[in-house]
Amino acid sequence: MKKDQTEAVVSQKDYEALQALYAKANAEMGEWKNKYYLAYADTQNLRKDLEKDHQAAIKYRAEGFLDGLLPALDSFYIALQSSPKDAEARSYQQGFQYLYNQIENALFAEGVSEILPKVGEGFDSATMHAVDVKEGAEDGKIVQVFAKGYKLHDRLVRPAMVSVSKKKVESKDDNKDSKANKA
User: N or C: less crowded end of the chain, CB within 10 Å?
Assistant: First the structure.
C-alpha cells in the first residue's frame, strides 16, 4: 500500500466514534431546532398579544378623559332639566343646551353611548346601580333615575344610578294589626 492510502484508511474504532459524534450532533441540532421553533412561536404569540393590547388601548383611550368629564355632564344635565320662567334665563338655557349637545355629539363620535333608563322599566344590574330601594307595586322596576350611565364602545364606564322598587311583603303581624284596627 502506498503511504496516502494508509492515511486515508480509518480504523473501525475511529469510524464508530465519528458515527457516535455525528449522531450526537444531529440530536443536538434537533433540540436547538425545537427550541428555535418554540421561541419563534412565543414571539409570534407575544406580537399578537401586544397588537391586541395596542388596539384596545387605542379603542379605550378616552376612558380616563370621560371619567373626568362625567361630573360636568351630570351638572349640565341636571341644570337643563329645570324650566326657568324668565325669558333671559330661558335663552341662556337654550345656549347651554346647544353646548351640551355639542359635547354629547363629540363623545358619541368617539364611541361613547348613554345609558338612560326610563321610570317603570326593569332593573338591569349589568348597566345600572341601585342607589335606593323604595316600596312599589312590583319588584325590580325603576322608580327614579339619579344619573345617566355611560359606555365606551362595549365597556361600561359608569352604570346608571337608579332607585328601584321593592314590593312590600305583608307579614302576619301586619294582618293582625290591620284587623285589630278595623274592629
Answer: C
Which cell numbers in the block locate residue 89? 334665563
Kindly report the pTM of this predicted structure: 0.66
CA atoms within 13 A on the CB side of 119: 6
Contact call for residues 159 and 128 (beta carbons, < 8 A):
yes
Cell 354629547 sits on residue: 104
Q: 162, 117 in Cβ contact below 8 A?
A: yes
Q: Which residues lie across from 110 on neighbouring strands?
A: none
| Of 148, 140, 142, nearest in space to 116 by CA | 148
Q: How much of the chain, in percent, has pLDDT values that exceed 70?
A: 87
Q: Are 103 and 71 in contact (CB under 8 A)?
A: no
* Residue 174 backbone zone (phi > 0: left; psi -120 to 50: alpha; other: beta): alpha
- Give the integer Cα–Cα distance in Å for 99 and 63: 21
